[in-house]
Amino acid sequence: MTSTSTTTAPHVDQACLDHVDREFYLPAQRVLPWKANLAALPGEPGTPLRIAGVVRSRDGEPLSGAELEIWHADADGCYSGYSVEILRNNLRGIVVTCAGGRFDISTVQPAPCEFSSARGEADVGHVNVVVHARGFRPLETRLVPTPGASREVDASAVESLVDVGLGGEVSCDFVLDPI
């Protein structure tokens, strides 16, 4: 069962999104368990993508109940909420980590956004993520699945290259700094 967000961490204000696609951010998304599928309906077209890892503090402690606000374009480069043909909450959600700080997200490989005002020649399909945990600074970035890249995301950045293995499995850990 899913619900609209009533998160304990402060919600992202669209004006403060520096490192993600703020023009496609929608607040109050459905809250999902640590193991979740972002597709709102079965059979979402596209290449399967799985993003799994741990949210932890700088000292290595897993952060239970951390929230990953996540959204991305579909296999055609379109974001939900901006097309009447796509469900508003498709490929979006707030995934809450389990007791071990883990998350395991099934989705599809996003295509570059066709209508982004920030689109450039090097624009690639990416996943927008803002990670929140009580007592820690939010981390925001655009995950770009890249073979052989780093597994650790430890600072907000416009893009974070994250390791993608065979079968479209992305392994990444988010490391949060205390407030």
Brief rundown of the structure:
The chain is an all-beta fold. It contains no helices and 13 strands.
What does this structure look like?
This protein has 179 residues and is mostly beta strands. Helices cover 0% and strands 38% of the residues. The chain is built from no helices and 13 strands. The chain has strands at 3-4, 30-32, 35-37, 48-57, 67-72, 92-96, 102-108, 127-132, 139-146, 152-153, 157-165, 169-171, 173-176. Strands 1, 2, 3, 4, 5, 6, 7, 8, 9, 10, 11, 12 and 13 form a 13-stranded mixed sheet that branches. A hairpin with a 3-residue loop joins β11 and β12 (169-171). It is globular, with a radius of gyration of 15 Å. Residues 1-19 and 116-122 have low confidence and may be disordered.
Number of helices: 0
Order of helices and strands: EEEEEEEEEEEEE
How large, in whole angstroms, is the Cα Rg?
Answer: 15 Å
- The average pLDDT value, as a whole number, equals 81
How many beta-strand segments? 13
Overall outline: globular
State the secondary-structure class.
mainly beta
Distance between termini? 32 Å
- Sketch the major β-sheet: 13 strands, mixed
User: Strand share of the residues?
Assistant: 35-45%
Unreliably modeled segments: 1-19, 116-122
